[in-house]
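### Sample
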Amino acid sequence: MDVVSDAIAAVRVGDPSANRVRAAGSWCARLSAYEGAGFHVVLAGSCQLLLDEGRRPVALGRGDVVLLPHGSEHVLADAAAEGPAAARLAVDFESWSGRDEPSAPGTGAPGSGTPTPSIHSPGTPDPKTPTAELMCGKYRLDRARAHPLLTELPDVVHFPAAPDRHPELHSALALLAHETTGTRPGTDIAVPGLLDLLLVYLIRAWLADRAEAGTPGWACALGDPAVATALRVLHGDPAHPWTNEALAARAGVSRATLARRFTTLVGRPPMAYLSWWRMTRAAALLRDSEAPLDAIARRVGYGSPYALSHAFSREFGVTPGRYRKRAGTHTPGLHPPPPRGGAASPL
């Protein structure tokens, strides 16, 4: 797979979910920190997103999208709310939305048989005329083995409504909004698929914006022809017995040039990055499959189970067998550090 696909696949756990929520009058709801990433799309009206004290609120209008890649705690509130007061008075998002669990695909929307959750305060306008309608969703992620491309993402990524920028993102949002207005044949497959597509497009849009601004980091790494080629072939076949010479030949540059540019943009030399990625893949296979150790060794480029076990123990501090037994408990510290590099359900 390519780098972005591998980065997402390595951390994905379970299926994504989303709900639509209407709000009227004066309102505010707190979303606690969670293991995953979340997003909000403003379908109608306006609102604001509040983070820690001292950080400026993010004003959100119709068509705006906000991604919270690290599951940071935050508050959603009406556009007129005063930040500190709203943060103190915010109700729990589960109570606010009237749901304890994420809705199934296509539910929680007009015409679906399940009413869209609404909130309003006494004496405020009728909730049938909402001041905001949002689509709120989440992705469950195991961030312990997150790729550095994902850890580089800031706490909040805001995409203001601009149909002329990132048209594929806005097309995916339009399809998702349409699909969640009612239950249609195939909805249970269509909605999770569109949510997966949305995450890819959000990350692509963020990378494109950073590349356009010339911001150092993974956007520059993927924009460098030689480094991007090297990353593509390493991720495409991590089991291949790559050497610096072979990798440089594929990238069309000298060994010294590739080593210098790769290390500068990615944070590690090519072979060190490959070793880290092989260990990350091995950990994922141990955790998510029942494949025997010799099969996993072959898939990540080790000639024998012994060779893999030795490298794995050196990286993780435990043998592959013990790691597999502990993996279901999310034992902290059992993942190699990433290379340095440049209302609804609660999210």
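Residues 100-125, 329-335, 339-347 have pLDDT under 50 and may be disordered. This sample (AraC family transcriptional regulator) is used throughout the tutorial notebook.
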